[in-house]
Amino acid sequence: MNEDSEPGTVRPGGRTARVRASVLRAAGDVLAERGFAHLDLADVARRAGVGKTTVYRRWGAVAGLVADLLAEMVEESVPHAETGSLLNDLKANANLVRRTLCDPRQGALFKAVIAAATYDERTAQALRRFYDARVTEWAPCVTQAIDRGEVPAGTDPCEVIRAVSAPLYYRLLTIGEPPDETAAERAARAAAAGARAGVYVR
Fold it and tell me: Which has the closest alpha carbon to 141: 72, 197, 91, 107?
């Protein structure tokens, strides 16, 4: 393992990959059911059916386990849409976020990790890496819209993508309700309108 790597972030294969999948699934279950404060490596090992020493040796600490869980979620995320229209691409992005936050397990998991990131710096860093990866994946939608002349040159693609998901997360975290289809539609339309108006020009 590279000495600069976060524990658990080097990708394994074979039986090690199966162990990783089992442990990360168990960790996600605990986060969704009980929150970050109750995430215990020994409990995760028991749920996953693997030895405690395996978990401690590979991930080292809870923060390393959460970092790897978020890395896996990036790997499994849906690639960006290419509909030929910025608005439709942003609608696809908004609906992906909506489905994630409305999922009983995924929505609870994200709430737990976001809450933990407010006081655990390693978790905060892992969460930032997760969102950086997702924003980077979807940024080409805006770059293509610039090339088509839909939005002004100099528009910041990453800021447009962040503008789509921000109100959906805000709704979940402030009023405790996952966003519905209307909220997703509104978020996509607002971001597209702002982009066309030059709001996100650097």
Answer: 91
